[in-house]
Design a protein that fits this description.
Blueprint: E1 2-5, E2 12-14, H1 17-21, E3 24-27, E4 39-45, E5 48-49, E6 52-53, E7 58-64, H2 66-74, E8 79-84, E9 87-92, H3 129-136, E10 140-145, H4 152-160, E11 181-183, E12 186-194, H5 203-216, E13 227-232, E14 234-237, E15 244-247, H6 260-270, E16 279-283, H7 286-299, H8 306-333, E17 339-341, H9 349-366, H10 369-378, H11 383-396, H12 413-428, H13 439-448, H14 470-482, H15 510-534, H16 543-554, H17 558-572, H18 583-595, H19 599-609
Parallel strand pairs: 1-3, 1-9, 2-4, 10-12, 10-13, 13-16, 16-17
Antiparallel strand pairs: 4-7, 5-6, 8-9, 11-12, 14-15
Helix pairs in contact: 7-8, 9-10, 10-11, 11-12, 11-15, 12-15, 14-16, 15-16, 15-17, 15-18, 17-18
Length: 625
């Protein structure tokens, strides 16, 4: 007997003896569980004499080793097994890697139908590229350097979704650079912490240098350092103004911008002692500089509206930052050391996104693409880097040569789509036990590309009412959530059954190419919308939010433009000529880049909207209007 379940808390299934001996049962029943609780799988069976079934039932309780189960999940394993006299129990963990204690409640809604996750089962399925990548580099490994009080723990918390308590050690004034810090809230991240460099003391610089050299010599990508953030925050009294400035301390004219320890560390990097390891200078608490400028403007005699005060304060803060901090830093350090100014306060998320973008780009260029993808998966602030990570995953295998059947010979389109689907949602890494990998959601996505079978996709440019921009569609989402919690109705989603073409075996054809291309672009842009919706709720997803993200895309101008451009591309390309095998890949990336929402625009709208009402409301997949 094999019983596979998400996890169970006293659930009951009844079978005859014959059924019991051959039972392979999937159980999907979700509860919050901690190591202090117990889980029991109770089996009910009747006694048999020949073909007669005796009255009454017998029970057998199988106790689940909860501590062992939780250890396996927190170690990043995909499943946990426990043998017993009649078979074995297999607990499959959520694809997004959520900790068991944090699994979503179903709130009384019907569970979603599980679907294949694209992994190999009995040699029939395709191996997700993300599995191969995470085998090479399962976690993004970063060294964070900075003195107490510079905001290291706040920065890590906001960017990687790690609770303050989990990284509170970083602001205690104590650090062991060799200690690996990880968190059950994000098992795709490992941190090393080092104190900053005190004036006149280079001992810690030597410790950091030795540590970096040791890590750089390690053979496995997963063991090497992938990036260093040097975090700095100092105030000084400007010689030209009486207000405080935020930056590395700048002494009197002609003096050095960098203290001895910092200067030695930077020189080690510039001289090549750290190899190609990206080192990024991070100046924190930029909001305090803006606040000071805002206060100065408000106290001036000039009359300004509130909006003008905010705008002028940001402009003046940026000018001051460039004049007093950035240019002197670049003059002494050069332009080879990237630097970012950030704030973890509300309204400044775009600064965090820029830091992640710079980190991703440098890790990809100088370390390893697998490490860059790991950083994309680990970070929880920038949808743009999630998209970039998805593109890099797709570029490695399954988005390539879509027209040439190089990766899909003998597979059904369902198998092809499932492995593509698995790779995309793995990068976004929502807090979701199974909804995004459910059959219902996959049916929705497949039905979205059904229209491409028409071969005459209308030109949306000729339709003045072709739909809303993506941002306008998202604004409509906010409006819908601010009113009564009416169910979200998706007209095309009338059943939970895949269309017939999904079960067809892959063959080189225009229809196949259209559908695969559209599925990739559509799913990526729906994930972007979903990220926007749940970005302030620790990326917890629900059916309602998934349907809203889907509806916003399907009713926007983006969807008809994407489908029309794909249809035109396929018609104009000779898919049987393999001279340009990646023209489909190039078109996919072009369409995603064209229709993605810029992070700054997304954050601005999200900040204006604030808390979204109805975040705790869920509903069935199929809602009747």
């Amino acid at each position: 007997m094999t019983s596979r379940w998400s996890f169970s808390h006293q659930c009951e299934y009844r079978h005859t003896r014959a059924e019991f001996e051959n039972m392979d049962e999937e159980i999907h029943y979700h509860r919050n569980v901690t190591g202090a609780q117990s889980i029991t799988l109770r089996l009910h069976f009747r006694r048999h004499v020949g073909i007669l079934v005796l009255p009454g039932t017998r029970e057998r309780d199988i106790r689940i080793d909860v501590p062992g189960l939780l250890r396996s999940q927190n170690n990043g394993e995909e499943e946990w097994r426990q043998n017993h006299s009649k078979g074995k129990i297999i607990v499959g963990f959520a694809i997004c890697g959520r900790r068991i204690e944090e699994a979503l409640e179903t709130n009384g809604q019907e569970p979603s139908t599980p679907a294949s996750d694209g992994r190999i089962h009995n040699g029939e399925q395709l191996q997700p590229t993300t599995d191969e990548i995470l085998d090479i580099c399962p976690r993004f490994r970063i060294l964070v350097i900075g003195k107490t009080g510079v905001g290291k723990s706040s920065l890590i918390n906001r960017i990687f979704g790690v609770e303050q308590a989990s990284v509170s050690h970083m602001d205690t004034g104590k650090a062991d650079i060799h200690t690996e810090f990880s968190s059950a809230q994000n098992n795709r991240l490992v941190l090393h912490d080092s104190l900053g460099f005190e004036p006149g003391n280079v001992d810690n610089v030597n410790i950091v240098h030795e540590f970096i050299e040791t890590r750089n010599k390690m053979s496995s990508v997963k063991d090497r350092l992938h990036a260093v953030w040097y975090i700095s925050l100092k105030y000084w009294l400007s010689h030209s103004r009486s207000d405080s400035r935020l930056c590395i301390a700048i002494p009197s004219a002609g003096g050095r911008i960098l203290e001895t320890g910092i200067e030695k560390f930077i020189n080690l990097k510039k001289s090549g002692k750290f190899g190609n390891l990206p080192v990024i200078a991070v100046f924190t608490k930029y909001d305090e500089l803006v606040d000071r400028e805002e206060l100065r403007i408000a106290k001036s005699k000039a009359e300004h509206s509130d909006a003008d005060v905010v705008r002028l304060a940001k402009e003046d803060a940026e000018m001051a930052l460039q004049e007093i901090c950035i240019r002197p830093f670049e003059d002494q350090v050069g332009v080879d050391i990237p630097h970012m100014t950030v704030s973890t306060s509300d309204g400044y998320k775009v600064t965090l996104a820029k830091l992640i973008e710079v980190t991703f780009d440098n890790v990809q260029k100088h370390v390893a693409p697998e490490a860059a993808i790991a950083s994309s998966i680990a970070q929880r602030v920038d949808p743009g880097v999630k998209i970039n990570g998805s593109i890099e995953v797709g570029r490695k295998k399954y988005w390539r040569s879509l027209a040439a059947s190089a990766n899909f010979p003998g597979k059904t389109l369902k198998q092809c789509l499932e492995v593509i689907h698995t790779d995309v949602i793995a990068v976004w890494r929502f807090n979701d036990p199974h909804l995004l990998n459910s059959q219902e959601f996959k049916v929705m996505m497949c039905q979205l590309v059904d229209s491409l079978a028409d071969h005459n996709t209308p030109d949306p440019a000729k339709n003045l009412s072709a739909g809303l921009t993506m941002l306008a569609a998202i604004a409509g989402i906010v409006s819908a959530l601010s009113g009564p919690s009416a169910p979200i109705v998706i007209p095309i989603f009338a059943s939970l059954i895949f269309a017939k073409w999904v079960s067809d075996v892959y063959r080189r054809s225009d229809d196949t190419l259209r559908r695969l291309m559209a599925y990739i672009v559509d799913l990526t842009l729906v994930m972007q919308n979903l990220f926007w919706l749940v970005s302030d709720s620790e990326l917890h997803v629900s059916r309602r939010f998934i349907k809203l993200a889907f509806k916003a895309y399907s009713e926007s101008k983006a969807k008809p433009h994407v489908h029309y451009d794909i249809d035109r591309h396929v018609k104009e390309a000779n898919i049987f000529v393999l001279v340009d095998r990646d023209s489909a890949l190039d078109k996919i990336i072009e369409l995603i880049d064209h229709h993605r929402i810029e992070s700054a625009e997304m954050f601005e709208l999200r900040y204006r909207v604030g808390t979204i009402e109805g975040a705790d409301v869920d509903e069935p997949w199929v809602s009747r209007g």
